[in-house]
TrEMBL record:
<dbReference type="GO" id="GO:0003954">
    <property type="term" value="F:NADH dehydrogenase activity"/>
</dbReference>
<dbReference type="Pfam" id="PF07992">
    <property type="entry name" value="Pyr_redox_2"/>
</dbReference>
<keyword id="KW-0274">FAD</keyword>
<dbReference type="InterPro" id="IPR023753">
    <property type="entry name" value="FAD/NAD-binding_dom"/>
</dbReference>
<keyword id="KW-0472">Membrane</keyword>
<keyword id="KW-0560">Oxidoreductase</keyword>
<protein>
    <submittedName>
        <fullName>Pyridine nucleotide-disulphide oxidoreductase family protein</fullName>
    </submittedName>
</protein>
<keyword id="KW-0520">NAD</keyword>
<dbReference type="InterPro" id="IPR036188">
    <property type="entry name" value="FAD/NAD-bd_sf"/>
</dbReference>
<keyword id="KW-0812">Transmembrane</keyword>
<feature type="domain" description="FAD/NAD(P)-binding">
    <location>
        <begin position="19"/>
        <end position="327"/>
    </location>
</feature>
<comment type="similarity">
    <text>Belongs to the NADH dehydrogenase family.</text>
</comment>
<keyword id="KW-1133">Transmembrane helix</keyword>
<keyword id="KW-0285">Flavoprotein</keyword>
<feature type="transmembrane region" description="Helical">
    <location>
        <begin position="14"/>
        <end position="35"/>
    </location>
</feature>
<dbReference type="InterPro" id="IPR045024">
    <property type="entry name" value="NDH-2"/>
</dbReference>
Amino acid sequence: MLVLVVKFTQLPPFGIMSFKIVIIGAGFAGVWSALSAKRLIKSTGKENKVEILVISPKPVLVMRPRLYESKASSLIHPLETLFKEAGINFCPGVVKTIHTERRAVEVQCASGVESTIEYDRLILAAGSSVIQPQHVGGLRQHTYDIDSLDSAVKLESHLEALASLPASPSRDTVVVCGAGFTGIELTAELPRRLAHIANARVILVGNTDEVGPSFGSSPRSTITQALNDLGVEVKLGAGVKAVDPEGVTLTSGVRIQTKTTIWTAGVQATPLTQQVAAPRDALGRLYVDQYLRVSPVDGVFATGDAACALADGKNQHALMSCQHALQLGRVSGYNAAAELLGVPLMGYTQAAYNCCLDLGAWGALVAAGWDRDIIKMSGDTAKRAKCYINQKLIYPPDNAHEALASADPVLPDSDQLFEQLIHVVD
């Protein structure tokens, strides 16, 4: 196998890059890390001194928060032109190994060629993946998910093909496992996506006693009402014991006949966090300081879903959400560049939190506070807000100048953004 080694062991002559920031991942946190780092470098006039390299399988931003929707294959945003115009380099590949002791990563490209790339600062922004517990029999073989673009496209193809099968209880029934945020959004959207199936039955299964357990009582009541109005059946208080091609068996002993089991029960940080010798939380996220540095390891930052970062300065940590990844990315990119440039670092903070939950044809729900216990809006108005977020707000600008301007790590907080959003949707 051909192995390439890319080294910068001596300071190069003037005009050649002196430092390299390597960013693993081109999700929301990775993209905004790159743009924010470039913004600071450009503002100091040191563009010929610091290279930014993003490593990811493809130069696209997958709109992961939207993968519960239909037309999954269209839910990507191209990055190649944006990166090129912004002066950000891109390496198509997958990072297999991180060597923090010698500041290098091993990368495998699609052709199988391997290379070793050295860095001065590393930003781990490789996101998260759905948890697939080994104790659930048949889970990996017989379930669908919306964790990635490929898996969402696979699910969509399956749903569309159901109409070609003979009608039966198992064909007409779709079971969503996991009554949290992702499970609720997908479940609420399924009645519309299954309009081509006569007598379609959608069932939401959760092992807790409440649907949406992370929400307060009032939002949970609204969620329950919305699912009821949409004709969704909810079965709570029992987990999944096993899955097979024709059904799901719950821990209570109940069996549901279905050809379509969709797993949404939780996520965990990228396995790459385990290659960094530093403490991690229960979700595998690396603990970081206020500047998003992995303190025990020099030169390494973690961001997005890979970081366990204190958000409010007290006891609330950033969530595995687009809302937090966007800001975490801006701060990690800025600070990685700031360390190399000798510029003061900026602390990460997102003290306020507002959550917008899509409820399909019923509408949507905006819940405020870290406990998500206050309803700010619901129904059609909240739906317009959710559509604006999904279809406009989370997309980076196509124009490099606008994207770099938008990469300022000093942004309005969630409450201020929400007030601006109200004016847009009213």
